Amino acid sequence: MQRRIAILFAAVMLLATSASALVGDPLKLVATSASALVGDPLKLVATSASALVREPLKLVATIPDLADIAQAIGGERVSITTLCKGTENTHFVTAKPSHLVAMSRADALVEIGLSLEMAFVPGLLEQCRNDRLQPGKPGLINTSEGWKALDVPVVLDRKQGDVHPQGNPHMNLAPSGGRQMAERIFAGLCALDPSGKPEYQKRYDAWLAELAEAEKRWSALGAAWKGRKVVLYHKEFDYLAAEYGIDVLGSVEPKPGIAPTPGHIADLVERMRREKDVVLITAVWSNNKEVREIAERTGARVVELPNMCRGVPGTDTWIRMMDLVHQRIDAAFRPATPKEAKSGG
Ligand SMILES: [Zn+2]
Predict the structure, then answer these.
(1) How far does the centroid of ligand 1 lie from the alpha carbon of residue 218, in Å?
(2) Alpha carbon of 119 to ligand 1 centroid (Å)
(3) 224 in Cβ contact with 333 (< 8 Å)
(4) Cα 44 to middle of ligand 1, angstroms
């Protein structure tokens, strides 16, 4: 992977040398006429507003959820490139030449962190030769900073293939995760572009108001879910389960990132048969033959949830995606009355 990225990078840099004049300070203002500018370039006074064109901050967002929230807060002051598609499994995303181009030119990288993007971000950061994005710089916006992760391992054993070495990284699927991501993005944009703070503040407040309305809808549904039982394919929805008191019986993957084995499936099927009304939660990337097999053997209902924005229709924003997640879970739980429950087998 590293070698492949290095080759790609050589090609990218050839292209970039001619464009290097464009890879400048994001706050640099381009004036149609130098005489239109007076004083400190960061506090420009223009004789005519139309004489100024502010280059938007070039952001790279690792996942569409971060792109959506960064766009909502950044408005026209940002332009965003997104690395992952909403249908992908973030743990196994492969770096592409286009990712490297975007990273080499970016003013900031917006990531979840907690090793969610471990498969592609460290290599890109190393190869992009963009000092602005490196750890410790304001251009690296780690949105999980300050987030209390679930399942932080006491002893890390990578040889077992666990892709959650810093605890559960799927913060973007926590109902409270939007607030966390937005808070970090707002702080990051204000640090990079202080003169934009009033606009960021206004847009951030508007987004929080929209979120507050959504949270009312979600908690109205989630209030009935306490004690309901689910099995997850991958440990993506643990935060959501914890926030509503849903009981997670187990996961189809024996460890995060490890494909199910026949023995593990047999154990899981046994446990699910002893319970009633178990819902099997999958994502777009994981709704596969093992899921169908387990559903057939246990009678469990399967619900496929989006695991990122823009993976399925109707999820173009993070709030709409979470609306759909709540609606689908509620629909899966709703028909389960003792009368209708299947005994499995
Ligand atoms: Zn994971």
Answers:
(1) 23
(2) 12
(3) yes
(4) 46
CA–centroid distance, residue 116 to ligand 1 (Å): 7
Q: Is 237 helix (H, G, I), strand (E, B) or coil?
A: coil
Half-sphere exposure of 275 (CA within 13 A, CB side): 21
Q: Output the CA 93–ligand 1 centroid distance in Å.
A: 12
Distance 134 CA to ligand 1 centre (A): 24
Rounded Cα distance between 104 and 108, Å, is 10
Q: Is 126 found in the same domain as 266?
A: no
Q: Are residues 94 and 228 in the same domain?
A: no
**Residue numbers of the domain that contains 200:** 2-22+56-215
**What amino acid is encoded at 276 in this protein?**
K
CB atoms within 10 A of CB 154: 4
**Does residue 47 sit within a domain?**
no
> What is the DSSP code (8-state) at residue 53?
E
The conformational region for residue 82 under phi > 0 = left, psi -120 to 50 = alpha, else beta, is beta
Query: Which two tokens mark 134?
Result: 């490196």
3-state secondary structure 206-226: HHHHHHHHHHHHHHHHHCCCC
Q: pTM for this structure? A: 0.84
Q: Are residues 157 and 132 in the same domain?
A: yes
pLDDT in tens, 204-240: 999 999 999 999 999 999 999 999 999 999 999 999 9
Q: Which of 215, 244, 261 is the last residue of a domain?
A: 215
- In whole angstroms, give the CA distance from residue 325 to residue 315: 9
CATH of the domain at 309: 3.40.50.1980
String of b and e for 99-133 (b: at least 16 CB within 10 Å)? bbbbbbbbbbbbbbbbbbbbbbbebbbebbebebb
Q: Is residue 343 part of a domain?
A: no
Non-local CB neighbours of 51 within 8 Å, separated by 6+ positions:
31, 32, 33, 36
pLDDT per position as a tens digit, 247-300: 999 999 999 999 999 999 999 999 999 998 999 999 999 999 999 999 999 999
